[in-house]
Amino acid sequence: MAQNFRKVEQVDQWKEMMFLYGAALKEINAKIEIMNDEFEERYGHSPIEHIKSRLKTPDSIVRKLKADGYEVTIENMKEKLNDIAGIRVICSFMSDIYQIADMISRQADVTVLYVKDYIKNPKPNGYKSYHMVVTIPVYLSDGAVDTKVEIQIRTVAMDFWASLEHKIAYKLVGNPPGNLMRELKACADMVDILDAKMFSLNKAITAIVEARESWAKEETEGES
Ligand code: 0O2
Fold this sequence. Notes:
By secondary structure, the protein is α+β, with helices and mostly antiparallel strands. The protein has a domain at 2-157: 2-Layer Sandwich (Beta Polymerase, domain 2). The protein has helices at residues 2-43, 58-67, 74-80, 94-105, 156-171, 178-223, and strands at residues 48-55, 85-91, 111-117, 130-140, 143-155. Strands 1-2-5-4-3 form a five-stranded mixed β-sheet. Helix 5 (156-171) packs antiparallel against helix 6. The longest helix is centred in the C-terminal third of the chain and has 46 residues, at 178-223. It is flat, with a radius of gyration of 22 Å. The chain starts with a helix and ends with a helix. 22% of the residues are buried. Bound molecules: ligand 0O2. The site of ligand 0O2 has 13 residues, from helix 2 and helix 5.
């Protein structure tokens, strides 16, 4: 009997916890969309290509806790895991990543717990992405609860690479062939080159457009 009560209590705690993480995701998502709109309004282009969000699956939560050597309890889920609520922001250019990260960290109700910059310090397999773990208050009827969200910010090219690497790691768990891993690492280097090239092309295009606009303005002013 007592065991049944305990189970019901745990189910309630689980539902409450997942509700909080879901609400935190909605809040962060709304904030990032508003920042993107404001950026577009001010500078004429939006830095964000798209946003994906997800709640970690129960399986994945249990696997991660066990892998890290923790007992599977609601308390440990809240304390030890930082990515139960995760949001991925995909940008066009590398420079956008740091701008978005800066905009997020300047939000008054967002607290940055820590940052992992896998762009400046890529993982040995070639993984590149900018990670921030933040807390955001979720306002419930009886008060605010600070809730953790992991934000991953990366370019389209980095995301493309990470999706394939994730697939390989997931499908060939334990023994991916060495040549596949070497090719993947070579692709990561190509991603770097592509990102740098796209960034410099975009800069050149912007400079030409600005120069043309300025000449057109001068001409119109000269005529009047
Ligand atoms: P999934 O399936 O995406 O949920 P921390 O959370 O900081 O205490 P952790 O988990 O080592 O410790 O943090 P890290 O390194 O920042 O990784 C968090 C997430 O980043 C991972 O979550 C992946 O989503 C992603 N990630 C990190 N390294 C790699 C990588 O080498 N390749 C790919 N494709 N993604 C990576 P999960 O829980 O591992 O996976």
